[in-house]
Amino acid sequence: MPDTRDSLEAEFGVMACRAQIRIWGLDDAAAQDAIAAGIAEARRIEYKYSRYRSDSIVSRINAAAGSGARIEVDEETAGLLDFAAQLHVQSEGRFDISSGVLRRVWNFREPRLPAAGEIAALLPLVGWQQVQWLRPHIALPRAGMELDFGGFGKEYAADRVATVLQDAGARGGYVNLGGDIRVLGPDAEGQPWRFGIQHPRRAEEVIAVLALAQGALATSGDYERYFEIDGRRYCHLLDPRSGWPVQDYQSISVLAPLCLVAGALSSIAMLSGAQAPAFLQSQHAAFLAVDQAGRLQHQGV
Amino acid sequence: MAATDRKEGLGGILLAALALPGLTPYTAAAENAPEHAVLAFKELYYHDYQSGLQRITVNAPSLSLSLPMGTAWGVESSVVTDSVSGASPRYYTTKSGASHMDDLRTAGDVKLTHYRARSAYSVGLSYSTEHDYTSRAVSLDGRWASDDNNTTFNAGVGYADDSIDTENGAADNESRRTWQGIVGVTRVLTATDIVQLQAGYSSGSGYYSDPYKLFDNRPDSRQQETALLRWNHHFKGLRASLRSSYRYYHDSFGIRAHSLGEEWVQPVGNSLAWTSALRYDTQSAADFYVDPPASGSFPTLPDGAYSTLDQRMAAFGSLTFGQKLAWQASPHWNFDIKGEYSVQRAGLRFIGNGSPGLDTFYWYAVQLGIAYRF
């Protein structure tokens, strides 16, 4: 008789990241089916919200920018747009899913600072407040504007995969999509899983270990894509209001009940600069932050 | 400062997320913030110390003495067997971090591991492609630990199907199929000794030539045998560790190779560790290796005869010396300096003559490391 206390683990690639699922509570065949369904769910979200697929909902919205056309979106997309709108308000404009156009001048493959004029020319295309969003219709008023769900797509997928696995009967385990982790429940002995938090300056090392039996953990850092000029690091986390990278923290990890929330809070905290701890406290979030001097700050962990 | 002045009990962003459908199968999950968060500074320090000595530190006394036997075995075995991951007690399960781009853009792979109390089983599938090379592989692995956790056995089989199609036309839709098998045992002999024995065999058929080299025509099948013996011994009195290894390799091309390695890791005081390493390699040439002519023209070979000028297929010996000093100046600062020097020449071959046309080959490397920890 199969022991459902055994756990099954799968590693795979999705959204250009390494991903991992580990579950227990099902017999082998059911666990494999559940994992296959989980991977399929992650791929579904990847395709649906990819900027690189011309038939994705995001590409259709972006293609209609400036044309006056309103695009009708499905229920799931509408929910995410509502969430994005909330993030924009609560972050005072720091979290903005229309800021992706700044990538046109910030190319992290080569160390080059954009000229002031280049950023100024793009800033009019950035700003959720300009977006005409009236459920279920959306329109981008200016040609060249773009929406990008990359700011929370992976975290949303981690939560959705977790839901699929739990609906399939998994009793514990976790989902890790490129470092964004959602826990389904403790291991078969009732013990929490132990998650290392990556060292922001040394990729092979961890700075701390957190034991989690439920909830989610997401980390945002300045080490994902960046370049350095004259000892200053310019990372991919751009403040949409100025068009310039943030420079106050090396990384911020946040614990929350949902990965979507942990991810949004860690991103907004990074974008909040020196106010990151105050912001996270206002959101009642447990966090672990590494400031530019490499000092550790934490609350609730 | 509107964002930080808000006073929602749950956090406004969490409330906003909870409005999304399909994210919370358990209603309880919505309210309970994670309860079991524990920050493990102690293990952070542990890792620190390990990193300063580059994966050898697990032999250092402070560590091996602080760990119970079963765990020490686990840590050791994960260090000495590169193929073992997951099953041995890692001190964290998985990592949280900002995402790294996956370099294998066109690659897909899935590995499933099934864990039981004293064993683990994995099945892996992979696919990768480069501009002139495509590889598909499948593997099965298993590892089993004894009841006292002092002995672990591992076995695995793999099959790979590669195709080579170069733009220069040398290899046109060529393919290669390879079966591989490996068996091994790792055993804790005493509290200060761990040994490991691994044996591997692979058998392949298909295209083995180097499409980018002239006069390169190799047999269309290759069988390889390897045996690896490692022994780590810790000297309690000296607080030092000796890591010894011997590797034997033989293949059907006629290459027979032996490697011997020794590393001595000596802590000095409480903050310094000195590592001295010496490695000796010797190998015979492939049966069809042709020495590059010192002068004149390339020897005439019968039509269809096997040949290669690849230096790696020649007969030679090499010696590599290494020294490393690691200094943990404070809990925050780590410094290390490492130097390696290697000489590879025909005359260093242990038995028989090396390939006369082979130039002596030297390399050295110096590595400096400075690390600040918090």
TrEMBL record, chain A:
The protein's Enzyme Commission number: 2.7.1.180
MF-aspect GO terms: metal ion binding; transferase activity
InterPro entries documented for this protein: ApbE, ApbE-like_sf
Pfam families: ApbE
The protein's required cofactors: Mg(2+); Mn(2+)
Cofactor note: Magnesium. Can also use manganese.
Hydrolase is among the record's keywords: no
Catalyses which reaction(s): L-threonyl-[protein] + FAD = FMN-L-threonyl-[protein] + AMP + H(+)
Keyword Flavoprotein attributed: yes
Keyword tags: FAD, Flavoprotein, Lipoprotein, Magnesium, Metal-binding, Transferase
Lineage top rank: taxon: Bacteria
Residues annotated for Mg(2+) binding in this entry: 151, 267
Recorded family membership: Belongs to the ApbE family.
PANTHER family: FAD:PROTEIN FMN TRANSFERASE (PTHR30040:SF2), THIAMINE BIOSYNTHESIS LIPOPROTEIN APBE (PTHR30040)
Name of the protein in question: FAD:protein FMN transferase
Provenance organism: Solimonas aquatica
Lineage summary: Bacteria, Pseudomonadati, Pseudomonadota, Gammaproteobacteria, Nevskiales
Automatic annotation (TrEMBL), chain B:
InterPro entries: DUF3570
Pfam families xref list: DUF3570 (PF12094)
Protein name: DUF3570 domain-containing protein
